[in-house]
Structures are given as C-alpha cells and as structure tokens.
C-alpha cells in the first residue's frame, strides 16, 4: 500500500500475532514454543529499534514521514504486548535497549499530534503511552496524559460518537471503544490514576449505545453514512462491556453470528 521499495514500519505489527501463537497453547497450535517463531519475534523487535527515528517515531508510507499514532502508536502497543507475552524468555541483555525505544516512542506520541481530527488515533496514542509507563516503570511519559485524555474525551458528541474528520464513523468508533477499554484494563489497581479511569468509564457507555444503531438486521455493520465509510468492527470493547451493558452483549453476539454465517 504505497510503500513499494520502502521498509514500511507497520509490517512489524505482526510481531504481536507471532507472540500470541508462540506463547498460547491453542488446540493444534504447531507454533507453540517453536524456536524459529521466537527467533522471528526477537528479530522483528530488533529491526523495529533499528528503523526508529531519533525522535522516537516511525515511517509508514514514505521516508522521513515520522508518523504519529498510525505507525508509532500501533507499533508501540504491539511491541509491548509481544514483550509481555514472552518476557520470561526475553534476553536480559536486550531489555534496556528495547525499553529505551519504547520510552522514546511514548514520548513522541505524548509530544505530537497530526493534521485532521481522527479520534481513534488519539485513543491509539493514549493506550500505548500508558502501557509503556506500566511495562517499563517510567511514568515520565505520562507528564501530559491528563491534557491528552481530556482532548480525546472532548471529541465526543452528546450523541456518544467520537469525531472522525467531520462527523461520526462507526468502524473507527468501535476501534476507539476497543482501545479505551484496553486502557482501562491496564489501569486496574493504580489508585493515583482513578480520575482518568472514571472519565473513561463514563465516556464508553454512550459510545456503545450510539454504535448499537448500526449493527443491522442483515448482519452488516457501519457503512457509507459514516464520515470515513468504514465497514470494520472491533469486538473487544463490546465483549468486555457485555456483562454491564446489555446493548454491548447484543451487538457482540449479533456480529459474531454474522461472521459465522
């Protein structure tokens, strides 16, 4: 996708999928504890550090792009997730350099923004910034977290949707719900961050309520009335909130049945 003859960083995102199949004993999983898979995981982590810019960012579509949440946020989340899955086998001599790259990426996300208003990108910046602080123990990356969280929350309309360019987009709404729900999971047990957690917990239910109108009887979701005309659905947030919000359970089950069919 517009990255021919160019080492687009975003492909390193698949490190997370490799770490999952390497570390989880799924039925008939031939990749579980497979040495070659571990070698690939560590190789991807090494290459991710090699292609990082001095300011902590990464290029996705063209050289010196220095992309924000699109490549840098998604990649930081993937690398941290992969690390946690294999941390018992992660080489001690590689740990400091890996953590330094994570902290640099988190500071970049905290410092910068991007043109246009894409709420899901702000959610995908907040999530790995906090995740990096949790995994590395370096909370300096949270120096302006309150301001960035408030900015994201102020992108929510009274109807529940978060702004994507000039209106609501349902596919990316499900993404924002998913990312913020993951962020809540990481905040469990952190007393000093309780105010952030309460704000997020207040924001998500109306977003789920709005999204529920766009899971159609025929099994499709979202579509051309959205500001970005997306069709994708992130189920994670709906699954997690299903026990508390009946609409979340209904949407998750309806679209799971759609996939089965």
Describe this protein's structure.
With 261 residues, the protein is mainly alpha-helical. The protein has helices at residues 15-23, 35-50, 69-86, 92-111, 119-136, 145-153, 170-187, 194-211, 236-241, 246-260, and strands at residues 163-164, 167-168. It has a two-stranded antiparallel sheet with strand order 1-2. Helix 1 packs parallel to helix 3 (69-86) and helix 3 (69-86) packs antiparallel against helix 4 (92-111). The model has no long low-confidence stretch (mean pLDDT 96).
List its traits:
261 residues, mainly alpha, two-stranded antiparallel sheet, 10 helices, 2% strand
Strand content: under 5%
Helix content, binned percent: 55-70%
Strand order of the largest sheet: 1-2
- The overall strand count is 2
Mean pLDDT, as a whole number? 96
Largest sheet: 2 strands, antiparallel
Count of DSSP H/I helices: 10
Secondary-structure element sequence?
Answer: HHHHHHEEHHHH
Model regions low in confidence, pLDDT < 50 over at least 5 residues: none
Rg over alpha carbons: 19 Å
The shape, in one word, is: globular
Structure class: mainly alpha
Span between termini:
30 Å
In a nutshell, what does this entry contain?
The chain is mostly helical. It is 56% helix and 2% strand.
Question: How are the SSEs placed, and which strands pair?
Answer:
Elements: H1 15-23, H2 35-50, H3 69-86, H4 92-111, H5 119-136, H6 145-153, E1 163-164, E2 167-168, H7 170-187, H8 194-211, H9 236-241, H10 246-260
Antiparallel strand pairs: 1-2
Helix pairs in contact: 1-2, 1-3, 3-4, 3-5, 4-5, 5-6, 5-7, 7-8
């Amino acid at each position: 996708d517009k990255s021919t003859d160019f080492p687009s960083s975003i492909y390193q995102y698949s490190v997370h999928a490799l770490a999952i199949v390497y570390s989880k004993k799924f039925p008939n999983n031939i990749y579980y504890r497979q040495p070659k898979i571990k070698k690939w995981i560590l190789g991807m982590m090494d290459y991710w550090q090699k292609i990082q810019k001095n300011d902590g960012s990464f290029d996705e579509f063209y050289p010196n792009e220095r992309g924000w949440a699109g490549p840098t946020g998604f990649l930081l989340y993937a690398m941290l997730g992969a690390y946690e899955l294999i941390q018992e086998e992660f080489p001690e001599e590689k740990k400091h350099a890996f953590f330094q790259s994570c902290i640099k990426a988190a500071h970049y996300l905290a410092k910068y923004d991007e043109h246009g208003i894409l709420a899901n990108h702000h959610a995908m910046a907040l999530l790995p910034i906090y995740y990096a602080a949790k995994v590395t123990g370096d909370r300096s990356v949270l120096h302006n977290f309150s301001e960035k969280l408030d900015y994201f929350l102020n992108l929510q309309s009274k109807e529940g949707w978060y702004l994507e360019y000039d209106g609501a987009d349902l596919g990316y709404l499900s993404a924002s719900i998913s990312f913020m729900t993951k962020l809540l999971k990481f905040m469990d047990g952190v007393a000093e961050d309780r105010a952030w957690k309460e704000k997020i917990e207040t924001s998500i239910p109306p977003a789920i309520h709005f999204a529920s109108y766009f899971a159609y009887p025929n099994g499709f979701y979202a579509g051309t009335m959205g500001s970005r005309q997306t069709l994708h659905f992130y189920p994670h947030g709906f699954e997690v909130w299903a026990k508390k919000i009946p609409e979340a359970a209904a949407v998750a089950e309806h679209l799971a049945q759609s996939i089965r069919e």
